[in-house]
Write a structure and sequence with these properties.
The protein has 403 residues and is α/β, with parallel strands linked by helices. The chain folds into 2 domains: 3-193 and 250-397, Nucleotidyltransferase, domain 5, CATH 3.30.420; 195-248, no CATH class. It has 9 helices and 20 strands. Helix 3 packs across helix 8, helix 4 crosses helix 5 and helix 6 packs across helix 7. It is globular, with a radius of gyration of 21 Å. InterPro entries: ATPase_NBD. This is Hsp70 family protein. It comes from Lentzea miocenica.
Amino acid sequence: MAYVLGVDVGTTRTTAAVCRLDGARDAEIALVVPSSLQLTGAGTFSVGEIDTEGWSASGFARRVGDVVPFSLGPETCPAEELTALLIMWVINEVVTREGEQPRHVAVSHPAGWGPYRRGQLHAALRAVGVHEVTLAPEPFAAAENHAVRSRVVPDASLAVFSLGSHAFSASVVRRSQSRTFDLVNHVEGIDHHAGADFDDLLAGLVRGRLGKDGFVSVAECEVAKRSFGPGVVISGVEIGRDEFIEEIRPSVDHLVSTFVRALGTVQPDAVLLVGGGCRMSVIGDALSASVDCRVLAEAAPEHSVAKGLAVAARLVLLGPEIEPEPFDTSVLVHTREASLRFPVGEIARPDDDEFTAPPPRPPVDVSPLELPPRRVKRVTSALKPAGRRGSRSDSRFDDEDGR
């Protein structure tokens, strides 16, 4: 069945979603892998695998355009080349599972990127054979994902609160008369705590009980952080919910105050929670107490951007459809009267006027053996898949904060 593809390369993991062209407008998750590459001594790249006999790199997607390259053993690779390699691998994996090429691909990028960084990523993607691709800002993708399920009228505004494992951002977008989205305001968090920092704060509470020689599982802290009941037990130590909230309250207040400043005088119709860090209920509760609108989140908010990218790619090919009736969903959780949580949704068609599209070619011409012609090609002979093939996603990474 013909489909389009959205790829969201986060700091921790990369998520791919597909949207069927002759089916429902909603997207489905196709693949989730760690956002890491490893160069082996044999000159091959692998995705998601970490081996002691190789050189690995992660966190490169946010450094696209940085003049300082990554050092992988004998090779130095710019961040955009590593990002393009990862995207190429993801596309190839989805093609293998779907049995055909996607008709179009949309890839996310931070809203603060300018023409230079977008151009660097476009060039790197073309170098690995990915030609028909649209680059879309992350808050636009989150808004498009929301619009699948809830009608967004022209001139309506949506606020996007994004909290992943290593990054925080706040954005405001407005629906245009052509039913796309325009960026009104955007703030990238610099000195703000993100998901991994909250894991460390929880681990610190446990370590304070165990003493300096006690062992604390960070993975256990990550899981417990998002599933707090009255209390949790980590490494044999019980931590109460109120104790944890008291520990992270200054960090949460800092995030929320920055978000409120980003809103300025705009009164949004809704706040969309994006990123695995938003699974902590304290985030939604703090926002609900600070804004006079609905606070909405999907059951898996770390997937919102990837799904919105797939919807955006569909819009690029087919254009806006007749405004549908709101999408019915059973994922409704009432946290309090001022805060109704349910899945969010879509993105506007992001046209990049700074770049001219390449000559017409097949939608995506991807071969795992045809790597970029520059320094990467000199040392690689194959980009081999990692993990289990055939499964829709790897459950080992479904509990990570993502992004």
